[in-house]
Amino acid sequence: MPRLAAEKRSLERFLGLLLEREVCPYCAGSLLSSLDRRVSSWILGHAVLALEAEAGGERGKKASSGLRGSCSVCGGEVPSALPELVSDLLQGLSEYEFETFKGGAVLPPHVHEAHDEVRASLGIWTAESPKVTLSRMADDVVSTITGARIDPVRPDLVGLLDLWRGEVRITVNPVYLAGRYLKLARGISQARWLCPSCGGRGCEECGWTGYRYADSVEALIGEVAKRAFQAEDYHIHAAGREDVDARMLGTGRPFVLEVVRPRKRRVDLAELQEEINRSAEEKVAVVGLRYAEPSLIRTLKEGAPETRKVYRALVEVEGGVTDDELKRLEAELEGATIDQRTPTRVLRRRSDLLRRKRVYGVTTRRIDDRTFEMIVECDGGLYVKELVSGDEGRTRPSVASILGKKAFCRELDVMAVLTPRA
Ligand SMILES: [Zn+2]
Ligand SMILES: [Zn+2]
User: Fold this and answer.
1) Residue range 240-251: average pLDDT?
2) Distance CA 120, CA 301 (A)
3) Centre of ligand 1 from the C-alpha of residue 75, in Å
4) Where residue 422 falls among pLDDT bands split at 50, 70, 90?
5) What does the pLDDT read at residue 3?
6) CA 35 to ligand 2 centroid distance, Å
7) How many other C-beta atoms can be found within 10 angstroms of the C-beta atom of residue 287?
């Protein structure tokens, strides 16, 4: 059957139904949806019923009572539940700042069944799911009243009219901020690290903070952002991480901060960055804070292994080290391929693998007879403390193996994270 003919037949059958049964505007719109794609179905339903009501007769009576909320399809449940739910939705949304929105609806199964039955028994071709009709209505009402744009892909807020449970649910999508962080002091973990003794409840061991380390990059940045965005929580995502006792200097490490359930979404980021840097002074500094897409998180994580790093290590050599030995060390490590088994110190958390990483360049500077500073440029993922100590032969070659002496990394700083993409 050609499409237009099928639609005409569907309308006729619907009007036939209306001679015998009342239908509410939402169910009418849902059944007639594709008759006119230029208007939302719920408006179409209203319009068709209003025309029939005006025309009078037996059908006009049924249409009038449908307009007042009687419905043989949904049992009147949809028109009777909607006003309160829509008002709850608008009330709930008013607590949030948002520019984009998407509505949704959940209906009791018996309403879907009733629709299926009417469609099938009458042979109606123009129908859409009543869920779609009501989602669209939520979109129309919210965009008209608040001015929000409808974004089905990644809206700021999703509002669900749940007619089955008689409630409204609002999903608040996170705000993502990107930037680079510097860690200016040692003893700061990247993420919040719950105290292993108390699991975060607070105990003597952690000084009642609940955390293993008093400070984390995540909390030093996140707490300030949480206040500014009036959010509930936050998570840091970064391109790799430095050891707790290593500083992160130079140009900093790229990160994304996920701000969870924010009430505000438009914050002056220059001001926020200044405030973070003021409150985290001498511990953490942030540069280049900006709004970001969530896809950047994957880019950061996937890019991390292929990222080059520049480290500064303070190395102590048992029995001292000569200038000639330092020269030899630079020459042998430059361009060297390092075979590294997972360090003993992280074996409990990571599986034992053999990694092959490159060192691109090494420069050294003597501090005293047995101490020197070493600047190393190498592949991300190379454990530099073990590059120094050799980790009992698990990292080869190493500073220790080249010198033939015991060597130990006393301090470690990341000077640069050279990301190809972020
Ligand atoms: Zn209905
Ligand atoms: Zn504790």
Assistant:
1) 91
2) 51
3) 6
4) very low
5) 73
6) 65
7) 12
Q: 191 alpha carbon to ligand 2 midpoint, in Å?
A: 16
- Measured in Å, residue 193 CA sits from the centre of ligand 2 at 11
- For residue 245, what is the domain's CATH number? 3.30.70.2510
Q: Which amino acid belongs to residue 212?
A: R
Q: Which helix (H) or strand (E) holds 106?
A: strand 100-106
* CATH number of the domain to which 402 belongs: 3.30.70.3190
Q: How far apart (Å, rounded) are the C-alpha atoms in residues 215 and 421?
A: 29
Ligand with minimal distance to 71 CA: 1
How far does the centroid of ligand 2 lie from the alpha carbon of residue 202, in Å? 4
Which of 24, 22, 45, 19 has its CA nearest to residue 33?
45
CB atoms within 10 A of CB 128: 16
Q: Are 200 and 194 in contact (CB under 8 A)?
A: yes
Nearest bound ligand to CA 205? 2
Same domain, 361 and 383: yes
What pLDDT is stored for residue 32 in this prediction? 94
Looking at the structure, tell me whether residues 311 and 296 fall in a common domain.
Answer: no
Residue 299 shares a structural domain with residue 224: yes
Output the pLDDT for position 293. Answer: 93
Q: Which SS3 state, helix, strand or coil, does residue 209 take?
A: coil
Q: Which ligand is nearest to the CA of 200?
A: 2
**Domain range for residue 343?**
307-418
- Spell out the SS3 assignment of 72-130: CCCCCHHHHHHHHHHHHHHHHHCCCCCCEEEEEEECCHHHHHHHHHHHHHHCCCCCCCH
Please tell me whether residues 352 and 278 are part of one structural domain: no
- C-beta of residue 135 within 8 angstroms of C-beta of residue 105: yes
| 165 CA to centre of ligand 1 in angstroms | 17
Q: 281-309: per-residue pLDDT in tens?
A: 999 999 999 999 999 999 888 876 678 89
pLDDT of residue 37: 85
Domain membership of residue 102 (yes or no) is: no
What's the CA-to-centroid distance between 331 and ligand 1, angstroms?
82
The predicted-structure confidence for 170-180, as pLDDT tens digits, reads as follows: 999 999 999 99
Count other C-beta atoms under 10 Å from residue 76's C-beta: 18
| Residues forming the active site | 243
Q: Does residue 165 sit within a domain?
A: no
**Which residues are CB-neighbours of 70 under 8 A, at least 6 positions away?**
22, 24, 76
pLDDT score recorded for residue 2: 67
Alpha-carbon distance 399 to 325, whole Å?
Answer: 10
- The answer to whether residues 331 and 278 belong to one domain is no
Q: Is the dihedral of CA 34, 36, 38, 39 positive or negative?
A: negative
- Ligand in nearest proximity to the CA of 203: 2
